[in-house]
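Subject: design request, 127 residues
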């Protein structure tokens, strides 16, 4: 059974930094992608970044490019989202999600392909 557990959220002032962690377990193989999504109050959940576990290939949405860095520690089965230069509009619940079966040599999955979800962690950026 795939399980994803997020941590690291909190309250930070604009311009500050936070690091989110996602511990992943239960995958059948190395061929999965971990994505970070956020849901602002009253808005839909949107994907912001992802990383493929097998080859470390990454993707960032324009809204976070240059400010967020996604990385993985394979030995710890953990994916991190280092968030810097935070803005009030980054406020929301951040979810870790996984798409299984997306190995090397194929494009990264679309955001709708993610089928396993964590419980979320709250990030609040004050102005």
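Subject: RE: design request

Done. Sequence follows.
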């Amino acid at each position: 059974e795939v399980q994803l557990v997020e941590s690291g959220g909190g309250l930070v002032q604009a311009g500050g930094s936070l690091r989110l962690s996602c511990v992943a377990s239960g995958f059948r193989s190395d061929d999965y992608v971990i994505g970070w999504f956020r849901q602002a109050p009253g808005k839909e959940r949107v994907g912001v970044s992802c990383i493929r576990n097998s080859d470390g290939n990454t993707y960032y949405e324009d809204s976070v490019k240059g400010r967020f860095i996604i990385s993985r520690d394979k030995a710890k089965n953990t994916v991190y989202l280092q968030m810097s230069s935070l803005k009030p509009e980054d406020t929301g619940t951040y979810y870790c999600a996984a798409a299984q079966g997306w190995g090397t040599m194929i494009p990264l999955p679309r955001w709708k392909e993610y089928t396993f979800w964590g419980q979320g962690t709250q990030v609040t950026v004050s102005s």
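The chain has a mean pLDDT of 96.
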